[in-house]
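Entry, Tuesday afternoon. Goal for today is a structural model of the target with flavin-adenine dinucleotide bound, before we commit to ordering more compound. Inputs were pasted exactly as handed over by J.K., no edits. I checked the ligand SMILES twice against the vendor sheet because last time a stereocentre got dropped in transcription.
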Amino acid sequence: MINKCKVTIAGAGLGGLAAAACLLLDGHEVEIYEQAPQLGEVGAGIQVSANAMHVIRYLGLGDEIARQAVRPEAYTFCMADTGEVVQSFELSEAHEKAHGAPYYHVHRADLHEILAAKVESLRPGCIKLNHRLSGYDEDADGVTAVFANGARVKSDVLVGADGLKSVVRAQMKGADNPIYTGDLAWRVMVPAAPLREHFPRIQQTLWMSGGGHAVSYFVRNAELLNFVGIVEKEKASEESWTLRRPWEEFKADFAGWNPAVQALIDSVDNDACYVWALHIREPVPDWSTARVTLLGDAIHATLPYLAQGAAMAMEDGAVLMRALRQSEDIAGALALYERNRFERTARVVRESSANGKLFHHRSRQAILDAFSKRDMGAERSSWLFNYNPLLVELN
Ligand SMILES: Cc1cc2nc3c(=O)[nH]c(=O)nc-3n(C[C@H](O)[C@H](O)[C@H](O)COP(=O)(O)OP(=O)(O)OC[C@H]3O[C@@H](n4cnc5c(N)ncnc54)[C@H](O)[C@@H]3O)c2cc1C
């Protein structure tokens, strides 16, 4: 067992914060370096299934999340034009009973704030802002994180939790660009009350249409309705992957969709329509050296079509903590961590991309046929939701 080591984490996203909190609880000396001048997350929702809730509960944050989250009744797949229900599986009690933790819909900013507060309570001052990692020097004694502002920080371990454009990954595995998937995501959040006649159930709805799909669900005690609408399109800009676009373009992208979606789009603030160009990375092994490793989007960025990117990042943190606990030396711990994360995270990337093909199929009949042969709830329960990163055997 590695008792106490000095850990530098690059990136204070959901993955970096969850990992920091796990490692701090085990007595490691952790510092997180974040490039941004202030902490925060985008104004959007996030789904947190039982596999990730185990980590949140382990950190003692289950009740706090529950106070702000929405526990959806069901997950329902519909045709986007008619609203016809294709399949639905229960989430609320059924999910918690089967997997030992609830399925929640949460506002990202709430989750991020709760995790950051936990980290700060465990080690005040451990999150350093305005520190953009530019590279690292590794030798047999340790690893030195080098920052654009001139700071150099030596520690026993460096964790790259620095997201899709990870500097740590680029240095370790060579600079390459994440792959644009051809899918753009419109993300909006609107007051829920005026739309309740169109969205009467507290559930997650996934709308499918040729060449696109969308997801809607409630957050923040059901006061807000979150909508992510995906369309296949050219990337709007090479430089920026997140862009404000005209409301009229948003409306046109979902022309012909059912009245509930139209009402939602009509209620959106015209100046608050943003698109994200969705990128992935093909799963590759060997993401650790003797002193440096990666987690979250930095190494296994996925399409969000299983809603598991952040969940994987949070699982990573818990498994990394346990791998350090279980190993005699740091290199062995990082190898154990990676060995136990590669297959699972690669499967999430693969299956999320496959979902994109299914949800966007041009043939309505093909969608209906595929759903008639598959039970989405049972499938996901059999390998995705039933994983507990705090208990799964590591070998
Ligand atoms: C439309 C959409 C919907 C999604 N829905 C879900 C969902 O419902 N459930 C789910 O689990 N996942 C979902 N995801 C995926 C999820 O958002 C990501 O997988 C997750 O946020 C990744 O977390 P991370 O901490 O690895 O990376 P990030 O959130 O990208 O955080 C990286 C952090 O590192 C910082 N950073 C970057 N470079 C440097 C540097 N050089 N030095 C210092 N700091 C640096 C960044 O500023 C940032 O704070 C969704 C994604 C999208 C696009």
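The chain has a mean pLDDT of 95.
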